[in-house]
C-alpha cells in the first residue's frame, strides 16, 4: 500500500509550518505501507494542481493532507470540506479570493473518506489530545481538502483521502500570548498513528465526537 | 413580506435558551415585514417536522432559525449546514444519533441563502460583535439548518433561509468560569438587524470574512 | 456616607474606557450614600497624585477605583495590589516603568478593604458574572490600587478602599477576534451593587472564591 | 552550589502532577550545582513544614518550588506570593481554608528572589514559551511559595527562592476540551534552564514583562 502525505509551506508570516515539519520527519514505511512525503505551496489553485500531478505520478492508495491550525489545542481530523474559498489573508502568491466556488461542477461539500473516528481514538490512546473538527476553514487548507476529495470523486475513485490540522509548534508561540502549541514529536507520533490507522481500518468505528455548534 | 423566525427551547441542562428569549422579544413588524416567531423543540427530526408544518401554514418569504452557541463570543451567522448528525449530548427527547445522514436524498451540504456578509457587516455597524461561522456543529442546530435548506431545495424554492447562533446570556455564565456572554438587548438588536438586512438585501456584498481553519 | 468612584481615561489605542463610561453613568445617590465620580488619567504617579488631592478635598468614607481589564470575561473585584510597576505598554504620557517600586516605604502588597466576597456574591445575585481576582496586573490599575491603599495606610486610616476591573464593551471587540465583552448597563448595575454592598456591609462574608493558580 | 527543587504530588483528581514528573527527570548536576529533588504533598501547612525540614537538612543555596497550573499555556515564573489561602477545592488531606492568613507575623506578600526576567528570557531562547506571572493563586502553590519566602525572610536569609508553574501534560488534556498542554521534555528543558540561570545570574535583567491586568 502507498500513502501520499502532503504538508504546506509556511504562511501568514510564520517561519515554519508545523505541518510539513512533521510530515518530513515521518518514517518511510508505516504499518507496511510506503509513505511518500511532499511539500505543497500555500497557494490557491496551484496547490491542487500539484497534488493532482503527484497523485497521477505516485498512484497512492491513500492521500492525507496536513496543515497548520494556529490557535487550536489538539490534533484535529477534519470531517468535511466545503466548496468555497474566503481568504482572510493573502496566500503565498498574493491571492485573496472572496466567496469563490472551488469547482463549479463539484458537490457543495465532500466528507473525508479517512476513518476519522478511529484516528482520533487511536491518537488519544497514545496520550495525545485529538478531536474531530467540522470545519477546515475557508482558506487553502479547506481548499486542498476539497480539491483532493473532488479529484477522488471525479478521477481517482479508489483512493481514500482526508485532511488533518496540527497546532502551532512551541517555538511559534514564544512571541504570542496565551496560544496553545504541541511538541513536534507528539505531532509526528499522532500523524504516524493516523497513517497506521488508515492503512489498517476499512470501516470506521461509531463513537460520538460531535459538537453542539 | 413575511419572515418566520424560530428559536430552540433550553437544552443541555440550561434553564433558558437565549435564542428563543431573544426571538420572542422581536418586534412584530421589522422593516415593513411581518415577523412570525415560533419556539421549536431541541429534538432531532421533530424540529424539522414542526418547521415544515409551520412553513406550509405561514408561507413565509424568509426563514431564520436561531440557536444557542454556548462559548462563542459574538453573533455568528452560519454559512453552511452539513448532512450529518453527531450528537455529543442527548437531545430533549433522549436521542443521540452518531454520524447519521439527515436526508439520504439531500446534498452533502447546503449554503445559507441569507445575505450573511451584509448581516455581519450591519450588526457590527451597530457596535455589536459578529462574524461568519463555517460550522453550525453536528447537533440540532446544524440539523434544523440543514433541514430548512433541504426543504427549501426540495419544496419551497422561493424562500430564503439560514441560521444564526447567539452566545450565552450573562445569567447563564454566572456559574461558569471564563465563558463569554452577550446581553439579551444586544442579541435582540442584532437579530433585528439581521431580519432588516435580509428583507432589504437582494445581493450579498463581497467582503472577506473567512477563517484560515 | 460619601463614596468616591474613579475611572481611567482610554489607553492602549482604545477610543473609550469602559471604566469611566460606567462610572459616569452611576446614580448620584446609592443606598443613601453620596457618589462622587472622577475621571483619572492612565498615567503612573500623576494618577495617584490626583487621587490624593481628590480624597483630601472630598473626604470620602469609601474609595473605589475602576479600570478596564480587556480580555476578562466578568466583573473582577481585586483582592490585592503589589508594590511594583512593570509596564508592557506606555501609559498616556509615555512612561513605561520596568520593575519599579511604587512607594519605597510601602508594604510589599496591600489587601483591598472592600467586602470583596460580598460584592462578588451580590453581583452574581443580579445575574451578572463576577469573581475575585488575585492580580490587578503591574500597570496603572495595580498602581492606583496600590497607591490608594498606601494612602489609606499612611494618611487616611478610616477610609475603606479597593479596585474593580471591568471587561471591554461590545463596541471595543467588534474588531477583535474571540474577545469577551460586557454591556455597559450590566457594568453600571454591577458597580451600583458594589457600592451598595460596600455601604451596607461591615464584615465581609466567608465564602470560597480562590484560584488554584 | 546546591539547589533544592520541589514538585507537588497529584491533586484535584489528576493522576499525575507535571511538576514532580518534570522535577524527578532533572539531571543531578546542572551548571555545576548539585540538584536535590523532593516531592511535597499538596497539603496546606504540612507542605511548608516538610520544606522547612528539608532546607534545614540540605542547606541549599537556592530553592525552587514547582507546581501545576492547569489551563496555563506556558511556563510561568511567579513574581509574588500573598499572605492568604483561599481554596476552591480541598487539598489532599481534606483542608479547604477560606481567606486564612498563612503567617500572622509575615509580610502581606513576598517577591521571588530568583532572577525571574532572566529565567523567562532564557527559556524563550530555547524556543519554549514562558512568561512572568503576577499571581500564584490562593491554593497550595501560593501557600508553599509564601511559606518558602517567609522562611527565607525569617530563618534562611542567604537562600534565594521562588516558584515556577508548569502547564498540564498532553496526557492530562486528552479528556478536556480546548485546554493547552506542554510536552514533558519541554518542561524539563525549561526547568533546567531556570536552574542554570539562577546559578549563573546574580542580578536580574530589566526587561518588560508586565501585564495591564
TrEMBL record, chains A, B, C, D:
GO MF, any single term: pyroglutamyl-peptidase activity
Subcellular location per the Swiss-Prot or TrEMBL entry: Cytoplasm
A Pfam family hit: Peptidase_C15
Catalytic center residues: 78, 141, 165
Record's keyword terms, sorted: Cytoplasm, Hydrolase, Protease, Thiol protease
The keyword Cytoplasm appears for this protein: yes
Principal subcellular localization: cytoplasm
Keyword hit for Protease: yes
Catalytic activity: Release of an N-terminal pyroglutamyl group from a polypeptide, the second amino acid generally not being Pro
GO cellular component, one term: cytosol
PROSITE patterns: PYRASE_CYS
Assembly mode: Homotetramer.
Primary role: Removes 5-oxoproline from various penultimate amino acid residues except L-proline.
Family membership noted in the UniProt record: Belongs to the peptidase C15 family.
Protein name: Pyrrolidone-carboxylate peptidase
Organism: Soehngenia longivitae
Amino acid at each position: 500500500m502507498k500513502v501520499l502525505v502532503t504538508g504546506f509551506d509556511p504562511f501568514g508570516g510564520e517561519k515554519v509550518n508545523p505541518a510539513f515539519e512533521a510530515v518530513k520527519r515521518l518514517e518511510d514505511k508505516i504499518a507496511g505501507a510506503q509513505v511518500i512525503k511532499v511539500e505543497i505551496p500555500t497557494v490557491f489553485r496551484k496547490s491542487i494542481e500539484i497534488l493532482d500531478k503527484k497523485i497521477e505520478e505516485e498512484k497512492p492508495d491513500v492521500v492525507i493532507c496536513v496543515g497548520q491550525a494556529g490557535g487550536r489545542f489538539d490534533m484535529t481530523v477534519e470531517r468535511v470540506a466545503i466548496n468555497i474559498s474566503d481568504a482572510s489573508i493573502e496566500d503565498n502568491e498574493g491571492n485573496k479570493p472572496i466567496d469563490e466556488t472551488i469547482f463549479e461542477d463539484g458537490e457543495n461539500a465532500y466528507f473525508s473518506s479517512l476513518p476519522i473516528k478511529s484516528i482520533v481514538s487511536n491518537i488519544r490512546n497514545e496520550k495525545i489530545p485529538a478531536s474531530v473538527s467540522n470545519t477546515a476553514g475557508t482558506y487553502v487548507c479547506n481548499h486542498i481538502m476539497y480539491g483532493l476529495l473532488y479529484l477522488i470523486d471525479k478521477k481517482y475513485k479508489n483512493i481514500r483521502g482526508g485532511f488533518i490540522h496540527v497546532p502551532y509548534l512551541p517555538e511559534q508561540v514564544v512571541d504570542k500570548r496565551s496560544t496553545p502549541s504541541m511538541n513536534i514529536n507528539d505531532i509526528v507520533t499522532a500523524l504516524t498513528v493516523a497513517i497506521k490507522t488508515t492503512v489498517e481500518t476499512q470501516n470506521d468505528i461509531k463513537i460520538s465526537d460531535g459538537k453542539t455548534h
